[in-house]
Amino acid sequence: MSQLVSRALFDQVMVPNYNPQQFIPVRGHNSRVWDQQDKEYIDFAGGIAVSALGHTHPSLITALKNQAEKLWHLSNTCTNEPALRLALKLCNASFAEKIFFCNSGAEANEAAFKLARKYAYDNFGEHKHEIIAFEQAFHGRTLFTVSVGGQPKYRKGFEPVPAGISHVPFNDIEALKAAISEKTCAVVMEPIQGEGGIIPAKPGFLEQVRALCDQHNALLVLDEIQTGVGRTGKLYAYMHSNIEPDILTSAKALGGGFPIAAMLTTDKCAQSFGFGTHGSTYGGNPLACAVAEALLDEVNQPELLELVTQKSQLFFAELEKINQKHHIFKALRGKGLLIGAELIEPWHGKAAKFLAQAKDQGLMMLVAGPNVLRFAPSLIIPDEDIKLGMQRLEQAIDQLIKIGPENC
């Protein structure tokens, strides 16, 4: 006799590093999700910027089914057709000349940071090993990536962490100038800080960082785990600027929900990952690459990317309407469909309360720290779902305002 699958079972059998909400989604279509009780939710979360084409997109289903009937897995002693096709398309669509596939954003960043150090070692010597990143950044949960990430709360209890890593304030070029040196092998940054509160790089900041890296023979590593694959209205967010990185990491939306990640780099840098220097058992898995190829074919189209910009404008307009009525947001920021709404000071520390109340109203959304509501829906979310979701968000805000921040 099988045991009832409920939220209580999580507490019984799962490690308590997560605290999921009390409902369990069981099916989804486009930008709507239904739970075990068949309650409907509008999905403004997108699996944390993952479900770029929403739920059960027919192109992804077809790609997965077709590949599932051919070949699931090979060791990395062989390559496969889906991986090679996907790698070629990523190269053709970006600055990249070489690709490394793995399973998650953290793994892609781990590979990027290792490659940066190995490149510096090969070309300049062992003294050039220091990595500079930014405060409030997030780059993953492995020991190396959590060390490069600029949020001490994620490192606490796991020390000692890898050495040779420092952090400077984001968007502060003078602080970076003071920190960078001939020992610096790489500067690592998100074009828009995600977990740090949806903080975009200031206009011109990427170009200034690129110039400093060139001056000091340091690599520029862009973490586009969250901003990549159409999220900002370009295939990758660096494309809004006039620069190219040396290394870029991509995951989340790349597989539309199927686990896959990629590190993109140049021929020059790739040479330092010679035979046997790095690897991944599942990296380049045929199933994952087939799905990602289908997703890339859908997303990397001018019409869809323009649609992201249009839907972003609607999102911001609807949030402005809510704010004009309730005066709940201190700032609205972001680009494309990666949007943050910072709460006013009396509500600081209460962002999770909005997430829970929105759930009760039939809306799935996110937070980016304790003060910011985060929205990262499907890139093709219907306009009517945006408007309905905003109605539900306003209902949630109404309920919380009645309670008041002091009672939450």
From TrEMBL:
Its Enzyme Commission number(s) read: 2.6.1.11
Query: Record-annotated residues binding pyridoxal 5'-phosphate?
Result: G105, A106, F138, D223, E224, I225, Q226, T281
Ligand binding (N(2)-acetyl-L-ornithine)? R141, S280
Class of enzymatic activity (EC top level): transferase
Q: Which GO terms describe its cellular component?
A: cytoplasm
What does the UniProt entry say about where the protein is found? Cytoplasm
What catalytic activity does the UniProt entry give for this protein?
N(2)-acetyl-L-ornithine + 2-oxoglutarate = N-acetyl-L-glutamate 5-semialdehyde + L-glutamate
The free-text note explaining how the cofactor binds reads:
Binds 1 pyridoxal phosphate per subunit.
Pathway given for this chain reads: Amino-acid biosynthesis; L-arginine biosynthesis; N(2)-acetyl-L-ornithine from L-glutamate: step 4/4
Record-linked InterPro entries: Ac/SucOrn_transaminase_bac, AcOrn/SuccOrn_fam, Aminotrans_3, Aminotrans_3_PPA_site, Class-III_PLP-dep_AT, PyrdxlP-dep_Trfase, PyrdxlP-dep_Trfase_major, PyrdxlP-dep_Trfase_small
The protein's matches in SUPFAM superfamilies, at most eight in alphabetical order, are given as: PLP-dependent transferases (SSF53383)
GO MF assignments = identical protein binding; N2-acetyl-L-ornithine:2-oxoglutarate 5-aminotransferase activity; pyridoxal phosphate binding
The entry's keywords: Amino-acid biosynthesis, Aminotransferase, Arginine biosynthesis, Cytoplasm, Pyridoxal phosphate, Transferase
According to the UniProt record, list the residues that bear N6-(pyridoxal phosphate)lysine: K252
Question: Which cofactors is this protein said to need?
Answer: pyridoxal 5'-phosphate
Per the UniProt entry, what are the Gene Ontology biological process annotations, in alphabetical order? L-arginine biosynthetic process
- Quaternary state and interactors: Homodimer.
Q: What else is known?
A: May also have succinyldiaminopimelate aminotransferase activity, thus carrying out the corresponding step in lysine biosynthesis.
Q: Which family does it belong to?
A: Belongs to the class-III pyridoxal-phosphate-dependent aminotransferase family. ArgD subfamily.
UniProt name for this protein:
Acetylornithine aminotransferase
The source organism is Pelagibaculum spongiae
